[in-house]
Each structure stands twice: as C-alpha cells, then as structure tokens.
C-alpha cells in the first residue's frame, strides 16, 4: 500500500510514504501497531525499510481553568506511575485532562473532566492548540484549552474512585504558577505549554472575557 503525503509539516514539506505492512502485535485497553515503511529523503530517493511500533492510546484534551476576575487558575495534583518509573517525583501539578470518548468533542470532554477532577464549572473555552505528545512512538494528540472558571465545589479530594483517581486541587494566582514553572516545579509538558500561553495572553484574554 502506498500513501502520498502532500504539504505536511510546518515547513510545507512534500513527500512520499510507502507503507509496506501494518500489523497489531498487541491489543488490550491500549493498542500497539507495528509499521514497516519507507519514506522520501530530503536529498532525494527513498529511505531503507524502517520498522517502528506505535502506541495507540486514543486522543486527549486538557484545560487550564482561569478566573479573569481574580487572576486565579486551578491546577490539580495526582500520583503518576510514569513519573515514578522515570525516577521523578510522582505527585505532579497538572492541568485537567482526559481521554476523549467515542462521539465526544474535546470541548465536551474538557467540561466533563473539569467536573470530575476539580468540581469545577467552566464557561467559555479558548483553544490553545492541538499537540503531538510523543510523536516518535505514539499517535496521541492533546487539544488544549484555557477555560473560564465559573464555580468550584470545594472538596478535600476529587476524581472517580472506580478509576483509582485521588486528586487534590490548587487554586493559585497565575503569576505564582508562572514562578513555579520558572523554578522547574512543573514537569508535565502540556501544563507548561498552558502556563506559557497564559503568561503571554493573559491581558488579552481578560479583555475578551470581561
């Protein structure tokens, strides 16, 4: 099977991809696909045959709640096994995020997860962008928003018990979160992207949402 890819990438690259074989060596809650392929080279011709496994875990959305009246944001804190495996502190400060379910939009997921993970009602959403998380080995994308905080139900912890979630929320000034990021306390990539975007766009966003 041959697939021509036209005008891909940010630099308007054109190229050809020849998919020789695609198999699925593992199918569980997640899936692993194995690709054998060749692709066109920048200096002309085709590459040799390459084999890569791709982790298929679905696509996600994430949202950073922001109150334009108070300048406060909501970050969540929870245990992450991946951070433990990477020998990093496993309780991470993060934005609200989750997997997009079948027939669900990223916007609807953001509202749903804000309720589940932070007891938070969101109003307007401002899309920040859609990002590949680990394109060298996974197809996962995350669509990231900044969301208008309308109300938060105060509880000691949040999350779905049946999913093993134990989540604590932190409502802090955006400027304090920017400082945490500069100090290296934010180790989750999508959270860093959200905070950097808000630092650059906070004044304009407040004008839009007033």
UniProtKB/TrEMBL annotation:
Superkingdom of origin: Bacteria
Gene3D superfamilies per record: Nucleoside Triphosphate Pyrophosphohydrolase
Reactions mediated catalytically: ADP-D-ribose + H2O = D-ribose 5-phosphate + AMP + 2 H(+)
Pfam families hit by this protein: NUDIX
Keywords: Hydrolase, Magnesium, Metal-binding
Cofactor: Mg(2+)
Positions of the Nudix hydrolase domain: 56-199
Enzyme class, UniProt record, top EC level: hydrolase
EC numbers: 3.6.1.13
UniProt similarity note: Belongs to the Nudix hydrolase family. NudF subfamily.
Function: Acts on ADP-mannose and ADP-glucose as well as ADP-ribose. Prevents glycogen biosynthesis. The reaction catalyzed by this enzyme is a limiting step of the gluconeogenic process.
Protein name: ADP-ribose pyrophosphatase
Organism whose genome encodes this protein: Kiloniella laminariae
The organism's taxonomic lineage, starting at the top: Bacteria, Pseudomonadati, Pseudomonadota, Alphaproteobacteria, Rhodospirillales
């Amino acid at each position: 099977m041959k697939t021509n890819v036209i005008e891909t990438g940010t630099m308007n690259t054109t190229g050809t991809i020849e998919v020789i074989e695609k198999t699925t060596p593992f199918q569980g809650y997640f899936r692993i696909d194995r690709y054998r392929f060749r692709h066109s080279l920048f200096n002309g011709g085709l590459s040799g045959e390459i084999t890569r496994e791709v982790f298929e875990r679905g696509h996600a959305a994430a949202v950073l709640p922001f109150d334009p009246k108070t300048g406060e944001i909501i970050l969540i804190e929870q245990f992450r096994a991946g951070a433990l495996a990477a020998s990093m502190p496993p309780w991470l400060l993060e934005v609200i995020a989750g997997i997009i379910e079948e027939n669900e939009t990223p916007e609807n997921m953001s509202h749903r997860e804000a309720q589940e993970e932070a007891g938070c009602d969101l109003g307007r959403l401002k899309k920040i962008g859609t990002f590949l998380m680990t394109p060298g080995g996974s197809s996962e994308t995350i669509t990231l928003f900044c969301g208008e905080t309308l109300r938060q139900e105060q509880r000691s912890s949040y999350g779905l018990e049946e999913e093993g979630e134990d989540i604590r929320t932190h409502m802090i000034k955006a400027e304090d979160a920017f400082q945490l990021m500069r100090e290296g306390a934010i180790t989750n990539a999508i959270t860093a992207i959200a905070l950097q975007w808000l630092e650059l766009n906070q004044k304009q966003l407040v004008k839009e949402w007033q």
